[in-house]
Amino acid sequence: xxxxPVGILGVPFDEKSSYLRGAAAAPPIIRxxxxxxxxxxxxxxxxxxxxxxxxxxxxxxxxxxxxxEPQVRQILQKxxxxxxxxxxxxxxxxxxxxxxxxxxxxxxxxxxxxxxLYDEFEGDxxxxxxxxxxxxxxxxxxxxxxxxxxxxxxxxxxxxxRFGVEVIEMRDYVxxxxxxxEGPLYLSLDxxxxxxxxxxxxxxxxxxxxxxxxxxxxxxxxxxxxxxxDIVELNPTRDIGGITAALAGKLAREILANMIGx
Length: 262
Description:
alpha/beta
């Protein structure tokens, strides 16, 4: 699998956001940060994330939520492993559907402030508050491990038990609590998993979250290589001085280094 090409893909969709729109504008901003001349192209472990070696599939043209999955599936048929830039977190459900059509069931690590396990939210079963309920009820994942969670409702706690989700709440978090994760492994990184001091440019700023260093440490201890990943919920209208965009680029570089194989 290490020989499979690695690509990036923008998924500019935020119509399932429950509070603020704006995340649809994020993909080109994350892409610009990732390849900015302000930073060198090396990960912390010394892996070069060379723009010339990363296949850029541009941004999807999205007519509706239902058009995301078939477009991603077509790209995956090229035997490529993708880092996708959202968009709101609703996109992870069609992304995982596309992945399972190609890889079979996956293991998922979710970094997030929220469980996103609602059966429905404000009348929408496909809200960005619901994607992991849809993934688990459809039997698309061998396992789901959530870290950084700090806003579970009683309903979401029940859902976690129902679906056998391993939840490591932020109040209980230490790196060694993350279990040994098997492949095929997919990483879903919601930027509101970080404390808003480090990532203010999100729609749902939830205090008490990860530092940048903690998230980098999580990425660096993941087994190699990820079959895919996403970075979601950057809302540029909420960012301050490009802090969150710069962080998203840094995290993208570390994730791509894993996917490249180092």
